[in-house]
Amino acid sequence: MVTFLQSLIDGVTIGSAYALLALGFTLIFGVLRRLNLAYGSSILVGAFAGAAVFAQWKAGGWAVAAATLAAAVAAGVYVERLCFWAMRKGAAIASMVSSFAVWMQLEEFLALLFPGRTLSFPPLVERSVFELGPFQFRTEYVAMLAIATLLVVALEWTMRATRFGLAVRAVTEHPEAARAMGVPVARIAFWAFVLASAIGGAAAYLMASAEEQVTLHSGMQLTFTGLIAMMIGGIGSLRGAVAGGLVLGVVETLVQAHFGATAREIAAFGLLFLLLVLRPGGLLAQDFAVREAAALRRV
Amino acid sequence: MLELKGLSKHFGGVRAVDGLDFAVKKGEIVGLIGPNGSGKSTTVNLICGVFPVTSGTIAFGAHDITKAPPHQCLSLGIARTFQNIRLFNELTVWQNLWVAQNSAKHRKERGFLGRWAGGRGQARRSVERYLEFSALAAKRDELAGNLSFGEQRRLELARALAAEPDLLLLDEPAAGMNSEEVGQLADRIRSLKGQGKTVVLVEHVMELVMGVTERIAVLNFGRKIAEGTPAEIQANQAVREAYLGTGAKI
Q: Which numeric CATH code is attached to A2-298?
């Protein structure tokens, strides 16, 4: 029982970082209705920039975090201009394919720039373990959970109470109606991209600082984790993204605790498969379906 | 105020709008009617910049808006409602009106930071005014998706007004309404004239068109077949034939 609860705690912690990744994917997908496959690699550029700043100057946590966020946003803007803004009149598939190409490009770029492929990353807080009752808490995980929670709450507030957030939601729901109401759709999409990249950069920073290293493989892992968490939660729903991230984190940790590290890799895909069979719309899809049906009844 | 000259829109071989000449003066309430598929909604979409024009010109005041995209038309002062309701269902009634305030005037009032975060009292007051106008004040915190059909129609109109347009294009605002609701809508449209708005009303519900407009243009197959006061249109033979068909055709 204690092992189970311990895994639950660890799962929620790592899941909070996954939730951030899924939120980034969801924001971009919601506003543009286009999948950004280069998302994982563009925030990996951020993590490598952070690691490079650390290696070069032995800089502290804040400088590394700032470098990570700045580079992730810069890479995100590069992807937006090249794959989404330039392709805005083309089919959605054009954006997806070109974002796939940019994914490869960015990873090759990093491989050339950092032949070692693995860089050490400074921890956010001094690594230590403290005990509370029967449970063990790792300080770096507690810090990660706190920061991720803060970011999710801040994003929730942005989406609910600011004009920018409302405009993002309006564009997500009815792009043509938003345009007719004077919402500058292209500009909103750009800033949503910047926001998503910053959130992704934060997630990459938290995950890298917990592991104290970044490798080139992390790009693929970031992309898959974010995509799977988004699909588990229900594509297009911000709350679903948070739920999907947490569920994925908990399931992965539980499976690892009971069946070992190899099973962990399978768990994510197994969970996605199960969900797509049982609830194709994702965890929070029912909300949608119910509302849709209610709307049909009214008409 | 609004002038269409030789306006045409062809979709492949289909001439949805075909050489339409039509002008609206400031402060007028004008009707645009015609059988299904006669090009009324296409005309609205052309004015708002949703579709590119095949040929002809659209002038709004001193501006040539033939090629203007939707947000530019809006900032010049043209707002519209949609034939099939397109509210932001996931936002509340209040938020729907709040997010629609994007006219050039609003931007100037709001300043740089206000564009992103909250806003000044002015903008909030004008949202209150439109809540009052459309009798939705009690429902301000309701999600738009949870409103009744009639309420959604009212919110569509209020949202278009929240953009503070000079010219309002209403695309079948009475579709699906009962006659009591049509009566209330007629009162609202008439009161817009008092506020100095110009209205183009695209409508199938004749009770509404004949009741509120001062002038009507009738389209058929993308061409204007008649124009005149409601009484003249009702007496017009070509209009009757367009709606009922001629004996010769059968």
A: 1.10.3470
pLDDT tens digits, one per residue of A116-162 = 778 888 887 777 788 877 888 888 888 888 888 999 899 989 888 88
Among candidates A180, A183, A294 on the partner chain, residue whose Cβ is nearest the Cβ of B99: A183
- Residue spans of the domains in chain A: they are 2-298
In A59-216, the DSSP E strands lie at: 118-120, 129-132, 135-138, 213-215
Mean pLDDT of chain B: 85
List domains and CATH numbers for chain B. Answer: 1-77+165-250 (3.40.50.300), 83-163 (no CATH)
- Where are the strands (E) in A101-182, listed by range? 118-120, 129-132, 135-138
CA of residue B181 relative to chain centroid, distance: 18
Among B84, B90, B101, B170, which would you mutate to test the A interface (most chain A Cβ atoms within 10 Å of its Cβ)? B90
User: What region, left, alpha or beta, does residue A182 occupy, with left being phi > 0 and alpha being psi -120 to 50 degrees?
Assistant: left
Is A264 part of the contact surface with chain B (CB cutoff 8 Å)? no
ipTM reported for the complex, 2 dp = 0.80
- List the strands of the sheet with B2-11, edge to edge: B14-24, B2-11, B55-60, B63-64
Q: Which of B50, B99, B146 is opposite residue A166, by nearest beta carbon?
A: B99
With H, G, I as helix, E, B as strand and everything else as coil, classify residue B22.
strand
Which of B158, B170, B106, B150 has the alpha carbon at shortest distance from B132? B158
**Single-letter residue type at A202:** A
For residue A177, give the nearest of B86, B102, B118 by CB distance. Answer: B86
Residue B12 DSSP label: T
pLDDT at B112 over 60: no
What angle is formed at CA B158 by the lines to CA B153 and CA B160, rounded to 5 degrees? 100
**Do B80 and A180 make contact, defined as CB atoms within 8 angstroms?**
yes
pLDDT of residue A43: 92
CA of B56 vs chain A CAs: smallest distance (Å): 22
| Cα distance between residue A184 and residue A163, in whole Å | 12
